[in-house]
């Protein structure tokens, strides 16, 4: 894996990638056009279609906005989201990288770009983006995302260290941290006792979450107050 301090240079001069993508990625060939419709209306229509899972329809609306305004960050983001949902992570990463260049401090958008790059097979790039944000911002969510990428890459050491870091920063935060830690213990480390400990910690944070209680019962344990363990690394 590359030096994590070297953040991928995706923040390129915007005119060049937009010019390159304008003739291919944002082509409206074959799409119904709505000339004269304000971009804000096209965005609303696209968002509505996206919300209902009609990604092929939604992407057409965002594409029309980008034909007019290639640097529109909102349309670029949603265009990328549609491509990701349609199983086109390479194209999604191209669109999302331009969106990130337009909104460089947008944490969620950066993580979305990292997910697209991970799915596209650019694992080192995805790691670099998230790890750099985690280090620069002491962000528990970023460490959690890095742990998830590591789990999906079958990298047990990085996965364990990253999820523990997330828990250290925010021990009473999301129950997801403890569920992921349990998955890493089972899937990558084959450590059943540690996995159960993480589930008991998760149970203390979210006793009504069926994901937690069901997994605990799968170990033959009976849920209840005596099962709770305090949160922490």
What can you tell me about this protein's structure?
α2 runs antiparallel to α3 (55-68), α4 (73-85) packs antiparallel against α5 (89-102) and α11 runs antiparallel to α12. The chain has helices at 15-22, 39-51, 55-68, 73-85, 89-102, 107-119, 123-137, 140-152, 156-169, 175-187, 192-205, 210-218. It contains twelve helices and no strands. Mean pLDDT is 87; it is low at 1-32. With 233 residues, the protein is mainly alpha-helical. The longest helix is centred in the middle third of the chain and has 15 residues, at 123-137. It starts with 14 loop residues before the first helix and ends in a 15-residue tail after the last helix.
């Amino acid at each position: 894996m590359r030096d994590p301090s070297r953040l991928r240079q995706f923040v390129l001069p915007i005119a060049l990638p937009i010019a390159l993508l304008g003739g291919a990625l944002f082509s409206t060939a074959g799409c119904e056009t709505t000339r004269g419709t304000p971009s804000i209306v096209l965005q609303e229509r696209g968002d509505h279609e996206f919300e209902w899972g009609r990604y092929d329809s939604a992407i057409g609306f965002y594409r029309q906005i980008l034909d007019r305004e290639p640097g529109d960050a909102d349309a670029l983001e949603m265009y990328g989201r549609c491509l990701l949902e349609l199983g086109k992570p390479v194209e999604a990463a191209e669109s999302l990288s331009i969106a990130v260049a337009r909104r460089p401090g947008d944490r969620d958008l950066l993580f979305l770009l990292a997910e697209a790059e991970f799915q596209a097979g650019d694992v080192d790039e995805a790691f670099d983006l998230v790890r750099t944000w985690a280090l620069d911002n002491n962000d528990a969510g970023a460490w959690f995302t890095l742990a998830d990428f590591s789990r999906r890459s079958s990298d047990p050491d990085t996965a364990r260290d990253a999820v523990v870091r997330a828990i250290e920063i925010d021990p009473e935060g999301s129950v997801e941290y403890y569920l992921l830690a349990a998955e890493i213990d089972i899937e990558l480390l084959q450590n059943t006792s540690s996995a159960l400990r993480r589930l008991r910690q998760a149970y203390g944070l979210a006793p009504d979450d069926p994901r937690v209680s069901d997994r605990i019962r799968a170990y033959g344990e009976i849920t209840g107050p005596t099962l709770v363990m305090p949160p922490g690394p």
